[in-house]
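step 4 of 6: structure.
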Amino acid sequence: MANAAGAAPGGHRNGFWGFLSLPGVAWLLALFVVPFYAIAAVAFGRVDPILRTADPVWSPWAWKFAPMSKVLDRVFGGDLGGVVVRTLEYVGVSLALCCLVGYPVAYYVARHASRWRGVLLAALVLPFWISYLMRMLAWVNLLQVDGYFNRVLGWLHLGGSRNWLDGDSPTVIIGLVYGYIPFFILPLYAALERLDSRLIEAGRDLGASPRRVFQRITLPLSIPGLMAASVITVLPMFGDYYTNTFLSSGSPRTAMVGNQIEFYLRGSSQPQVGASLVLVLSAMLLVLMTYYLVVTVRAQRAVAT
Amino acid sequence: MRRNRPGRHPFGLATITWLYVLWSLVPVLVAMRISFNSGKSRSAFQSMSWRWYFTDPAKSVWHDESLVQPLRNSIKLAVLSMLITTPIGVTMAIGLQRWRGRLSRASNALMLFPLVTPEIVMGVALFLVFSQVYTGVPRGFTTQLLGHITFSISYVVVIVRGRLAAIGPQYEEAARDLGASRLQAMRLVLLPLLGPAIFASLMVVFAGSIDDFVISSFLSTGASSETVPMKIYAAGRGTATPALNALATIMLVFTLAAVSLAAIVMRQMRLRQGGGEDAQLGSLAAVG
């Protein structure tokens, strides 16, 4: 390795760089690793018999796994199963819609929008700077019974007296897509923009139709970007509990896993069930998280060497 | 510039893109307009007024303490997070970029983890740790601040590392060859070169903190530690007045002003130094 990106040649310097990282590492150990361990200590710990509060057990050798297996039974086939299935449905449909809308947008801005590119790019970034809940509030305003959405429907003679905010799955899905699609488009845009246009030109010069070029060159080459964009969109969606609550007046018909976690931890005093659910959710998402981390570390290396 | 074939413009794609842009921004514009409503309705606009900003003696943002308090909390949190996170993140980035060995790789993985951890997991983790382990930390604002810093550090590290990789070691080596000590080289050469990245970090941390709902909400103790997103969440479903929209609009203006200012300053810095468009895109993408 040719002393890449500021690698210190002498071993004695290495300690200095370690020392510089120390505050950040210590911070993350104290306020990221320890807290995560606290979830396990509560999930596998005891419950105070009188107060029903959590009594965390710190030594893994004293952990009890019975409460967790009870939660697992409830998730797989029990009363929590429906919520898990609904979460998967919402996230799946939302992701499909993100691809359907987001891919053409990212593709157009990255490869075709020559004159308007700056404006479009700004428009793609703008939602990042608008508070997520402000954007949801905007939909709550639009979807009121006497709101603009119903008025447009009435004007088109398509009804227009429906209460959209009363536990409708489509409303929640549109809300999720609206909320998270910027996180999908921007990384995909970056990937499509980096794509080597010489390959596309070669395909065209060799006589392939634009459609064939897209199918055989652009789409396959954009798969890694598409995967990364999907993972980064889906991860927060899985933990979401406020979008559906906000857009459906907290109706149980649209409850997701996140709602159950929030309910058990704060609504009712069963922190152990809540903590167990967080562990179940984390375990389910671990594959996605690991995928993203591996890709990121590889990209870091590619930049560094 | 990058068109495949000149003269063949994909109008279908262009239509989808512009419709998407309209769809993504129009609802927010409508919500902002409603904040200027003279009536009480949050769904129908009657006529233009500043009623919900100043003029209403009891329910305008200016006069309603239950709306001013969240605004104050949000801005305080965002400014303090920004000022505390950035130095920690910048030193960590410089360290991780150059530190070699197994511990360094482990630290790097640890740094990346918060980026992919769903907020609810982090929220629950912090909620439990402050109620079970760090019980001496005053609940509310202090715990919220610690939480915001925790999820912001990694953004700063990613942004600054991108810039460090672009700069390379040669400037510092030159300074060292000319007799500067390691610390002098860092202070006089590296830090100024990192200027745009540091600025981008400040901006990203500010925006991330001001937008945060989950962590603030899990670590809140009630009205005294309510933030603007929490206020919107709590009041938005009920019978709130357009003052809520006014509050959200004020927030939006604050954030956009901060971001625009930062963008202008970064542009100036970059014009003086040249290069680094990737770092800018990286900083924007890192928000996600």
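step 5 of 6: annotate
 - Chain A is about 70% helix and 0% strand.
 - The two ends of chain A are 7 Å apart (CA to CA).
step 6 of 6: archive
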